[in-house]
Amino acid sequence: MKLFIDTNVIIDFLRPTRQKHKVAIALFDYLVKAKHQIVISEDMITTIFYLSKTEKLQALRFLKKIQDKWLVLPFGKKTINQALDLSLEKNLDLEDALQCLCAKNNQCDVLITNDISFYNCEIKVQTTDDFLNA
């Protein structure tokens, strides 16, 4: 499976104080063992680093490690314009629209997020818990 992972799941994994930290660890353990292809967008690199707050060194090590293992995708102008149009038309969170369209346009099977109000752009969207319990 080709799985797009939303930023909040990675932050949950990196920050032990987050409510979904343990389930994020379980998710990544499962994904690695099952040899699923993990996908993120390239803008998430800076977002993950920025949101890591006091764990900047840990975040840098994590980001360095995933470069050879995960697929890191660009948005491209087409996806950016689609997301801008969609966000304007439906009053959506631009970041969610960009992530969802990036996953969809790159034929990901599932987008995993812990944002229960994440925009669904005609790709399967699941929370970490729902994915692990399916």
Mean pLDDT: 94
Q: What's the CATH C level?
A: Alpha Beta
Report strand %: 5-15%
Radius of gyration: 14 Å
The largest pleated sheet is described as: 5 strands, parallel
Number of domains: 1
Question: What's the count of strands?
Answer: 5
- Following the backbone from N to C, one meets helices and strands in this order, namely EHHEHHEHHEEH
Cα(first) to Cα(last) distance is 14 Å
What global shape is seen?
globular
- The total count of helices amounts to 7
If you had to describe this structure to a student in words, what would you say it looks like?
The two termini are 14 Å apart. Helix 1 (7-14) packs across helix 2 and helix 5 packs across helix 6 (94-105). The chain has a five-stranded parallel β-sheet. 31% of the residues are buried. The protein has helices at 7-14, 21-34, 43-51, 56-66, 76-90, 94-105, 128-133, and strands spanning 2-5, 37-41, 71-73, 110-112, 124-126. It has a single domain, classed as 3-Layer(aba) Sandwich (Rossmann fold), CATH 3.40.50.1010. It is α/β, with parallel strands linked by helices and 134 residues long. It is built from seven helices and five strands. The mean pLDDT is 94. The chain is 56% helix and 13% strand.
